[in-house]
Design brief:
This protein folds into two domains: 282 residues, Rossmann fold (3-Layer(aba) Sandwich); 50 residues, no CATH class. It is built from twelve helices and 13 strands. α9 links the parallel β9 and β10. The longest helix is centred in the C-terminal third of the chain and has 24 residues.
């Protein structure tokens, strides 16, 4: 099934016969201006925060730590060294023993985006490149995080790895925007890929991600997950032990339905080939390949308790993210919708 593997890694401009991708600049790379404008749309986004925050920095999420904060938690007996400003005089008067109030502290929560910018992401037959949609989603997540007082970090990989430690405020979001603009340039990515890449860059990124995403982080994975395998499961399970993780799989429509019968020129940037869909058996093999890939990714994510959401290259970035965050723990699949 070499044609399936090759077709899934086309880079550069899509063949006009293979789809309807707009070849304008905005469809193949992102600009600083458009990512800055996404700040306004991100204000109403509510990032999931099921796991209590463990950061030592004050913020907007309930923490596992007890101390002085906004929300009263309980009262306990006074101990030497306690701040007398927290005395619970009512309980003290009722029991005859000194008691002090405890509060649930509010802490910042690190939000980390892992963004796949490998060669297979610089592709689309309709809408925008997978890399463009992923970058816009990443920027929206960044703006939504800092608007709530959280810190935003990232791990971007396109042969090399670019780590952004979580940072709060506009500085954190602007740093992410700069990195997204630089690394979503197809020419820049091609130069890095020419120097060689890891055998499985996704697994290498997942392994490094654990250094960026400290325990208690909210982690978004943005990729087409074509390289997801058994080793990926191990990395995801370790990451999931101490963090909330959500996977956003970027899918092109041509991965759901075989192209019309014909012969299509294809390339991975180095090798050229011909993809023949005139044969019914070839079209079925094509569908089986992608169906098997989607099934493998879904199974691995379910085994790791990581919600998987599929986004199409034709989706509106803001609407797609609103849909995901409305039901963050419920899997959404374009494959099921296409079959239905």
């Amino acid at each position: 099934m070499i044609f399936g593997k090759l077709f899934g890694k086309i880079s550069g401009k899509p063949d006009a016969a293979a789809g309807e991708c707009d070849h304008g600049t905005g469809s193949v790379r992102v600009s600083r201006t458009e990512l800055l404008q996404l700040r306004h749309g991100a204000r109403d986004l509510k990032l999931d925060s099921r796991r209590a925050a463990t950061s030592v920095i004050s913020g907007a999420h309930a923490s596992r730590f007890r101390g002085r904060g906004m929300d009263y938690l309980e009262s306990r007996g006074y101990q030497p060294g306690d701040d007398i400003r927290g005395m619970d005089w009512r309980v003290t008067a009722r029991t005859g023993r000194a008691h002090i109030k405890l509060y649930q502290e509010e802490r910042q929560r690190p939000v980390v985006v892992m963004l796949d910018l490998g060669p297979g992401m610089f592709f689309a037959t309709r809408g925008v490149f997978k890399s463009v949609l992923a970058a816009r989603i990443a920027a929206l997540i960044g703006w939504a995080a800092v608007s709530r007082g959280d810190r935003i970090g990232a791990l971007l990989f396109n042969g090399g790895h670019h780590e952004l430690r979580p940072l709060g405020g506009s500085r954190g979001a602007l740093r992410l925007v700069r990195a997204l603009v630089e690394m979503t340039d197809p020419a820049s990515s091609s130069n890095i890929m020419a120097n060689g890449i890891a055998e499985n860059p996704l697994n290498a990124a997942l392994q490094r991600l654990r250094r960026v995403a400290r325990p208690g982080s909210l982690v978004f994975l943005l990729s087409d997950f074509h390289a997801c395998d058994a080793n990926s499961r191990q990395h995801l399970q370790r990451l999931r032990q101490h963090n909330d993780v959500m996977a956003l799989q970027i899918v092109d429509p041509i991965e759901l339905v075989a192209p019309p019968p014909g012969r299509y020129a294809i390339s991975d940037g180095k090798r050229n080939g011909m993809f023949d869909t005139l044969s019914l058996s070839h079209r079925q093999a094509y569908l089986d390949y992608f169906a098997g890939n989607h099934r493998r990714v879904r199974d691995i994510m379910q085994q790791c308790a990581v919600p998987l959401h599929q986004l199409a290259t034709t989706d509106s970035d803001l609407q797609a993210l609103h849909r995901v965050l409305a039901n963050p723990g419920v899997e959404s699949s374009l494959v099921v919708e296409a079959v239905a």
